[in-house]
């Protein structure tokens, strides 16, 4: 079973569940696609950071959007 949504959330699900692989398209599905700055990519492998969440919280272009959503929820 390999998730193939191609976005950062799938990468974190695969890493968390130890599924072994998923398709990731760094140039599409923006702003949710791509990787956070701390995500390590080497020799065809991507390793997300140990930060809590799906990694969206670490993407600068989503920071204001997430902060706005959190402030509305309070």
Identify the notable features of this structure and list them briefly.
two-stranded antiparallel ribbon; 8% strand; alpha+beta; 32% helix; 74 residues; 2 helices; single chain
Description:
It is a single chain. By secondary structure, the chain is of the alpha+beta class. The chain has one domain. The chain is built from 2 helices and 2 strands. The protein has a two-stranded antiparallel ribbon with strand order 1-2. The longest helix has 14 residues. It is globular, with a radius of gyration of 13 Å.
Strand order of the largest sheet: 1-2
How many domains? 1
Give the % helix.
Answer: 25-40%
In DSSP terms, counting alpha (H) and pi (I) runs of 4 or more, how many helices? Answer: 2
- Radius of gyration of CA atoms, rounded to a whole number: 13 Å
Mean pLDDT: 82
Strand content: 5-15%
Distance between the termini: 37 Å
């Amino acid at each position: 079973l390999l998730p193939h949504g191609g976005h950062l959330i799938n990468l974190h699900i695969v890493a968390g569940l130890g599924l072994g692989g998923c398709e990731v398209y760094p140039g599409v599905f923006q702003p949710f696609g791509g990787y956070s700055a701390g995500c390590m990519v080497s020799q065809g492998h991507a390793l997300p950071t140990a930060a809590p969440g799906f990694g969206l919280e670490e993407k600068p272009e989503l920071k204001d959007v997430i902060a706005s959503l959190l402030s509305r929820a309070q």
